[in-house]
Automatic annotation (TrEMBL):
Plays an important role in DNA replication, recombination and repair. Binds to ssDNA and to an array of partner proteins to recruit them to their sites of action during DNA metabolism. One of its GO terms (molecular function) is single-stranded DNA binding. InterPro entries: NA-bd_OB-fold, Primosome_PriB/ssb, ssDNA-bd. This is Single-stranded DNA-binding protein. One of its GO terms (cellular component) is nucleoid. Residues 104-138 are annotated as: Disordered. Keywords: DNA damage, DNA recombination, DNA repair, DNA replication, DNA-binding. PANTHER family: SINGLE-STRANDED DNA-BINDING PROTEIN. HAMAP family: SSB (MF_00984). Gene3D superfamilies: Nucleic acid-binding proteins. Pfam families: SSB. GO terms for biological process: DNA recombination; DNA repair; DNA replication. PROSITE patterns: SSB (PS50935). It comes from Zhenhengia yiwuensis.
Amino acid sequence: MNKVILMGRLTRDPEVRYSQSANPVAVARYGLAVRKQYVKQGESEVDFFNITAFGKIAENASKYLHKGDMVSIVGRLQTSSWDDNGTKRTSIEIIIEEQHFITTKRNSDSQDASSSSVATTAGEWPPSTMEEDDDLPF
């Protein structure tokens, strides 16, 4: 099984390009910074990941996501290897299968992020607002 679930903030705006095929497919690339759960000597550590999205997920990322926005993603790891002037290079990226928009930097600046977070899949953008409902069975 190859499954990755991460939540973090974009380190740069998504960069979108289109494939050169008969039916062009959008390809978006961006960075994701994920804070580790533990704190070391008063400072938390951060891991950085390269993210790649295709199709509608890529198009929605380019329209609605910006540096600093918080997202959660579900995807898979993919490794690539190549020779760079005699030096073997390897990279690991995460290919997105699902993308959920949690908060935008604009929202978190104006409201507390925990109270303003909205999770949606890329196909459901823009999100519908949910009201509190006392009739829910949970």
